[in-house]
Design brief:
Number of helices: 2
CATH class of one domain: Mainly Beta
Helix content: 10-25%
Structural class: alpha+beta
Strand content: 25-35%
Shape: elongated
Order of helices and strands: HEEEEEHEEE
Low-confidence stretches: none
Strand order of the largest sheet: 1-6-5-4
Mean pLDDT: 82
């Protein structure tokens, strides 16, 4: 019974650590992006989801051509940059009654808290939404490996 209680406590601590990791990633991203948003730049809205094998990021980029997106992935972060051009209708307008859509340079930095295989990342643009698929690496922390010890010649 004591072992089961210890296992439950360990599981709860792992869940708490995962929540704290997500919070710290969100704080790091918020600190990094603070001050980046100016009149002519913006950070696109994103959704980030995961399952056991993959992390997916969806970014809303309506009106952006796929060839104008700069996507960089490292072991620690995903950086999404590019330009969203003004539509011809708004460029020719004499006055604006309402202007809620964002145009210009965009930049979004997402801190990764997962170990991902950066060599197998894929991205696809469909209907104004960019989907980035980041396959997870198998986490080997906590795993044990038996290592054979060989005797060296003692002379």
């Amino acid at each position: 019974m004591v072992g089961k209680a210890a296992d439950l406590e360990k599981l709860e601590l792992e869940r708490l650590r995962a929540r704290v990791d997500r919070l710290m990633s969100a704080l790091d991203e918020a600190i990094e992006s603070e001050g980046e948003d100016s009149f002519d730049s913006f950070a696109p809205a994103v959704d980030i989801c995961e399952n056991a094998d993959i992390v997916c990021i969806w970014a809303e980029l309506p009106g952006v051509r796929s060839d104008s997106i700069e996507l960089t992935v490292t072991a620690k972060e995903v950086v999404l940059e590019g330009d969203k051009p003004h539509s011809p209708v708004t460029e020719r307008a004499i006055s604006h009654f309402c202007c809620e859509r964002r145009y210009g340079r965009f930049h979004r930095r997402i801190i990764l808290r997962w170990a991902v295989n950066i060599n197998e990342v894929s991205a696809e643009m469909r209907d104004g939404v960019l989907q980035v698929r980041l396959p997870k690496l198998i986490d080997r922390r906590g795993k044990s490996v038996r290592v054979e010890v060989v005797a060296a010649d003692e002379t």
